[in-house]
Amino acid sequence: MLKTLNINRYLESSLFKIVLDEDGDILDMTEAVKLLMPKDFIPHHISEIFDQSLLEQIKKRLLLLKTETIADQNVLIGHLEVPNKKSEPCYIIYQQYSGRAILTIKIGEQSYKLNQLYESAYLKATMPMALVNESGYIISTNDLFLEIFPDQTSSELIHLQDLFYLMVPTSPFTFEEYILKALTQESSTVKMSYTSKGIQRYQDVSLTLDCKTQMFILRIVDITEQERLFEQLAHSDQLCTTGEIAASIAHEVRNPMTTLQGFLQLLEHEVTGNAQMYVKVIQDEVKRMNEILNEMLVLLKPAVDEITIFSLSVLVEEVLILLRPKALLDQIHLVNEFNAKGSLLIQANPNRIKQVFINLLKNAMEAMKANDTLSIMISEGNQQNVDIFISDTGAGMGEEMLETIFLPFVTDKPGGTGLGLPFVKKTVQEHGGSISVTSEIGKGTVFHLSFPLIPVML
């Protein structure tokens, strides 16, 4: 816990501060305030130094002190009036502290206007911010802060340490060291993760000491996108480092696999009973291993394609002919919609593009149940491109899965390799196209593909 600072030490380190009890009696003041007073004059009550308007404002807040209601920090405007001196326009910052009221006096209209400017900049800041008093309590926040922590709007003051309980540090961290660094070095920063509405975000939480007021400014900078980018870069570096090794291993493994497959075919005719069943199981697993190796090689090596111009609608119809038997078996409705005046031609490798559609449609069908609908719509885009929308009414995906769906080896499908969608993305991009996906759990998924359109020569 952050230790409560001694009030005398607090006063010694600040300028123009007065401590009051609930009746407005002056309990203590800084030396700077005493210098504002005439010689041999020591005020005992606020009525002796403030004008009537400011006095009424302070009394209203002292009533809250009597009822033990927590008051937020307030800025009050009025005049400082002391015997034998000219009335000075001033404003005061009113705070409650351990059953006492603390008034910070600011003299002069220019200072007040400057404070208004600072307050406006604070409230309209583009990052979440909060003011923390010397005891560690959050006494003021801007709107962005409340958007992130909507539960912190109660009338009771929240301690900074209680706020930190809602967040998880990404590295070894102690609250005491964090505060000590802010006190000794005037600034302290820690990286935290915070989960809100099921979404994890990363934030740099910095605490800066304001020497004039002895209060802290808390700033929160959202670095989620930066952290996600670092994760992707680290993943890419890892793949690049292991890519060449994986390709070499895949080639080497295929040779003994081919030999194994040949001997299994011979053995299949030599065995009977349970042994024949075991051989069949081994053959199926060897076949699956070969499929995984082939998919890895496609991802790892640059493709040398035979590029041709072909009709996309014709190719999609060929794919649907292959998949209609499975759709009928699974009782899935297949809908093919073509919205264009003429043929939509693209320039690509037809075999690889066909595999792209097979992968996407098979994935969709595996996420669907009986009587669901799988639609593929082809239309001419607005910028010399052809758009393909593959939509299903299946299980859908959450936001976390959507963020990693095109990364290699990421899958939630039992027995899946996690290489199908990376192949899809790689192939689409190599042919000058783009791919995106939207999804909602329980409602389904939509893949949007786009390829450059080849104009038809008349």
UniProtKB/TrEMBL annotation:
Task: Write down the chemical reaction(s) this protein catalyses.
Answer: ATP + protein L-histidine = ADP + protein N-phospho-L-histidine
Q: Keyword Transferase on this protein?
A: yes
Q: List the CDD domains hit by this protein, alphabetically.
A: HATPase, HisKA
Looking up Gene3D superfamilies in the UniProt record yields: 1.10.287.130, Histidine kinase-like ATPase, C-terminal domain (3.30.565.10)
Keyword Secreted listed? The answer is: no
Keywords in UniProt for this one? ATP-binding, Kinase, Nucleotide-binding, Phosphoprotein, Transferase, Two-component regulatory system
**Residue ranges constituting the Histidine kinase domain according to the UniProt record:** 248-455
Q: What is its EC number?
A: 2.7.13.3
Pfam families assigned: HATPase_c, HisKA
In terms of PANTHER family, this protein maps to: PEROXIDE STRESS-ACTIVATED HISTIDINE KINASE MAK3, SENSOR HISTIDINE KINASE
What is the name of this protein?
histidine kinase
